[in-house]
Amino acid sequence: MAMKLHEYQAKQVFADAGIPTPASELASDVDGAVAAAEEIGYPVAIKAQVQVGGRGKAGGIKLVEDEDEAREAADEILGMDLKGYHVDRVLVEEAVDFTNELYVGITMDRGEGKPVAMVSTKGGVNIEEVAEEDPDAIAREHIDPAFGMHPYQARKAVYDAGVDQSIARDVSSVLTTLYQLWDDRDGSDAEINPLMVTSDDEVIAADAVMNIDEDALFRQPELAEMEEEAAGGDELEQKADEYDFDYVRLDGNVGIIGNGAGLVMTTLDLVDHYGGEPANFLDVGGGAKAERIANALDMVFSDDNVDSVVFNIFGGITRGDEVARGINEALEQFDEIPKPVVVRLAGTNWEEGMEILNEDLVTVEQTLEDAVQRAVEYAGEVNE
Amino acid sequence: MSVLVDDDTRVVVQGITGGEGKFHAQQMMEYGTNVVAGAVPGKGGQEVEGVPVYDTVHEAVEEENADTSVIFVPPAFAGDAVFESLDADLDLAVAITEGIPTQDMARVNKRLSETDTRLIGPNCPGLITPGEAKLGILPGNIFAEGNVGLVSRSGTLTYQVVDSLTNRGIGQTTAIGIGGDPIIGTDFVDALELFEDDPDTDAIVMCGEIGGEDEEEAAAFIDDYVDTPVAGFIAGRTAPPGKRMGHAGAIVSGSGTGTAESKINALNDAGVPVGDTPEEVADHIEEFLA
Question: In which pathway does it act (chain B) (predicted)?
Fold first, then answer.
């Protein structure tokens, strides 16, 4: 999974590496934003610091010319709800007078198993749309991870993209630095969109995306510190982080808990197949002990949308007796079970698990299909 | 017959002195796997469950003729452990470890292309030839000897499908968990090729999931080269775009690549029936073998 840095964090990382960025300052209240704008000098852009794409279109970025406009924009953006994310900070940034917008990015091409550098003269728009509608507008250069990016590769990508000769050198230099950062910092994606070109042929990173491979945070202590600040998401997703679950919230009302990503996904699909709607994806992972199992139930019960729960475990390294203990532990603390729970245990120690499991508290089914159908049925009854 | 592993396979367990390594080395031996050595830096000269431990994989090869490694090394050091097994010129390396940094795997992937060693995983349950040997963490008791080859990106989903098969009296030649990471050693195409060439494999199950384009590539390969009947399953039909479903590799990108629909269509176009449920996959296999 990737840890996403906020724009202001990514810009700091880019600026420290020598990539030109506009003057900017972070603010968390209106007065602070106005003071920052005065200091930087108008016009400035006021930009919501939340982890969602399309901030501009959603009203999260405003260009302002004077103090009144700055106050109005900051007041509007701070505290707004942007696609489900609360905005509590804005970046106040020098507005760059540009003549052209480029795109540069580095990502991992999983098909090739190699990093790829990308350059396009169609910057400033959603690059995934460009990739779909006009794939030739993006120049791509695969990089041998053992050697890193050779200087000629940066030049080649820039020339292949049709970048004007007057700025080709500077763009190559930005791309080279960006790869170095991506490589040194265990990036999964590093992206500048747009890379603005000014009337006097200077390039400047007007936006910055830096996503870090979470599996590599152990060797990126400086970035790991930024993680807390970067953490977002709703209350349930934060709770899942605390419990260290792979959790994704969905729109339905059948709560799903299981072990192993593929099997949990399959359980979601079966809920849908049998006419229900999954409320979440929750993978307890391999070898979960009783406490973790109890936490998983607590997690799913915390979602008000959930009307029934299907608990499907096929034990390999996860043991049925531990699962049963965890379920008992979680449910015995209630006078009344908040939501009906359907349990299916298979694999390692499932017989021991069935002996331990308090069947007064749950509905037991023998097969995955039966368990899912029962949970869908329960969820349906609640809504009648 | 089987692919990749049988009772002649000579296994060195990298990380055999750790909790997981020790437990699963024991489990593998109980199943009948020929575990000949362990390799853990600094632990040379010890014994685990009667198995001699060496400081390096190279020593395990020299002293015990190990030809295959199973890697239970923590993620920070697992990339290096794979490099070591590649350098020791093993036939097969199986990386169970979950959470290896992707950039480490990109470097491994590059080196892999220059050697003759085959890598399974990482982030996988391993592989098993029922009745002969297992390499990894799969629960041996749900498998049975037979004539169906199975390849899957997911561990527990493999167990679910195998259970459906075994309950119907359908056994397996070999089951291979290729792993849920974005960069893996052996992919679907490689595994399909092995099963196609195995005279004892009469039908193949392929369990894919959302993310990447490996299933689409596999479909094209099946269309061109595979005569053995294949039944498929794709997990993640209901996954929303942009949300990673547990596995690092299981994500539908914002631009819509990696969807279940695209994979199911590609497989259907190649003549591969895709089950809506794991039981339906077993139904298809039963029909193939009838």
Answer: Carbohydrate metabolism; tricarboxylic acid cycle; succinate from succinyl-CoA (ligase route): step 1/1
